[in-house]
Structure formats: C-alpha cells, structure tokens
Amino acid sequence: MKEELLFHEGKAKLQIIKGDITEQDTEAIVNAANKKLAPGGGVAGAIHRAAGPDLWEECKKLGGCETGQAKISGGYRLKARYVIHTVGPVYNNTPQNARDLESCYMNSLHLAKKKGIRSVAFPAISTGIFGYPLEEAADISLRTVINFIQDNNLPEIVRFVLFGEKDYKVFTKAFQKIISSKDF
Length: 184
Ligand code: ADP
Description:
CATH architecture: 3-Layer(aba) Sandwich
Low-confidence stretches: none
Strand order of the largest sheet: 1-2-7-6-3-5-4
Number of strands: 7
CATH class: Alpha Beta
Number of helices: 5
Helix content: 40-55%
Largest sheet: 7 strands, mixed
Distance between the termini: 28 Å
Bound molecules: adenosine-5'-diphosphate
Structural class: alpha/beta
Radius of gyration: 15 Å
Number of domains: 1
C-alpha cells in the first residue's frame, strides 16, 4: 500500500492514499451515504457488501440522515469497528454545496471525537454519483480536515482513500497547493 505522511499537528496526522475504503484498518471508515442509509451504488454499495446484511439492519433503525449530517453504526464484517455515514450534497453549482460538503467532514470528525475514535478513513464524498467536481471537492475536503485537526489535535489519523490514480493525483496536488500557500 502506497502511503504518505503528509501533514501533522501534534499527535494528529493526515494521510492520502490510493486504495479501497472497505479494506481500511482505521477504527472508523466513512460512508458516502444516501439519505436512507441504504445500500446502493458506489462507496455505499461496496461498504454494505463488505460489512454484510447486519449493517443495513442497523441502518434501518437510525432514522435516515440529512445532507451534511452524520450518523454512526457498527462495522460488522469490516476491519473497521465503526462506520460513520454522512450524506454529501448532490452538486448543482450553488454556494450551499461547499457548505454542505464541509459539514460532512466536520460532523463526521465531531462524531468520531465524541466516540473517542482515534483513526478515521474518508472517501472523496460527493465526487461520484453526486457529481461534485473533483478539484473543488479536494480543496474543500482537505482544508476542512486540516482546520479540524489543527483545532482539536485529533484524531491520530485521518486518511483520505482515493479509489483511482487520477483521484489520488488530484488530491495530492490540491494538498500541496494548500500547504505551500500556507492559507489554511
Ligand atoms: P457520492 O454519491 O457521495 O458521490 P460515490 O460512492 O458515488 O459517492 O463516490 C464517491 C467517491 O468514492 C468517488 O470518487 C468514487 O470513485 C469513490 N469510490 C467508489 N468506490 C470506492 C471504494 N471502494 N473505496 C474508495 N473510494 C471509492
């Protein structure tokens, strides 16, 4: 597994890797969920398949999830003990999209903090079926996580898991741009 330590603040560090979110050994993985928290396509489908049917049984009882909010469940057959489900915005090129995407990361990280979770892996929320342009999403996602770990000095690991080479390159490039501008 190609892994890079890219940023750290006290005990907290941010990693960007190429890989599959369902295979991560972090304490929690984040699901780019739909409002019903149901199995579907993309990340949600892959997570539900890997976790097994008990995940959907638990999700049914969580009462759904609004855009930008986050809910937590067990991880069942996954290596991760927890799944944090967050619903990204469906991209329609309005300023609200960025606020909602930021809320996804903030609310997921606050939930992890509340539960004492020390390591969290995120996919690139909203950049698949929900259509968020990757460059813009990478900038918002990385800035939000950097700000959170600077303010909180935790979790110990936040790992962005990008599914393909192109997505990985866009994220690492966006990261380098943010760090070199020192504007975060
Ligand atoms: P959304 O509906 O929020 O757009 P998707 O699941 O369609 O969510 O996709 C979000 C991102 O996750 C996309 O960039 C997609 O390529 C990527 N992705 C899909 N499957 C996986 C996986 N198993 N691990 C990590 N990333 C994945």
